[in-house]
Structure formats: structure tokens, C-alpha cells
Amino acid sequence: MQVSVETTQGLGRRVTITIAADSIETAVKSELVNVAKKVRIDGFRKGKVPMNIVAQRYGASVRQDVLGDLMSRNFVDAIIKEKINPAGAPNYVPGEYKVGEDFTYSVSLKSIRKLN
Length: 116
Hints:
By secondary structure, this protein is an alpha+beta fold.
């Protein structure tokens, strides 16, 4: 995970985060295994559906869920690492995602200054 922080006007901050492609693929494969254990498809016993069929049917939605989860978790890790105190809800701006490539997104937020 790569993080860069820009200061926008006033108390605004823009945090740009890049998630490595291998960590995305690992999380997607792990989630597809969990889905395969629970999914019921005609012609297969529960938990015995081949992974290529699970990936074909549920791959896009699983990938979207995993990306949303990774965005949230990496944002929290980034603000802790950069010691940013957010005020209010962050605004996520996802970038273009292509399978097998790193995913970059930015989050705009207002931060609270520390008073001494």
C-alpha cells in the first residue's frame, strides 16, 4: 500500500492510496473460496462447485465487494499511519480498476488540527 497526502484549501486533505494487485487478487481468491463453500448451483452438491464456475458467476460482484472492503481498511490504516484526525465523513473517489493492475483511489476529507 502506497499513501500520499495532499493539503487542499483550509483543513481539507486528499489522501491518495494505491493497493497492490497481488493483495487484491489474494483477497478475491480467498472470498471466492468462501462463496464456493456456501453457494448452491444446480448440478453440484453444496460446497463442491468448481472454482471456475464460481468465478464466472460471482467473480465481478465478489471483486467489487473486496475492492470496497480494501478501500475502507486501507483508508483507516493510512489515516492512522499519517496521523490525520478526520472531521466528518470522507468522500471516496475510486480510480479506474483493471484486473491484474494496481488500484489507485483518493479520499477527500476535512481534518481537525491538534491544539497545543
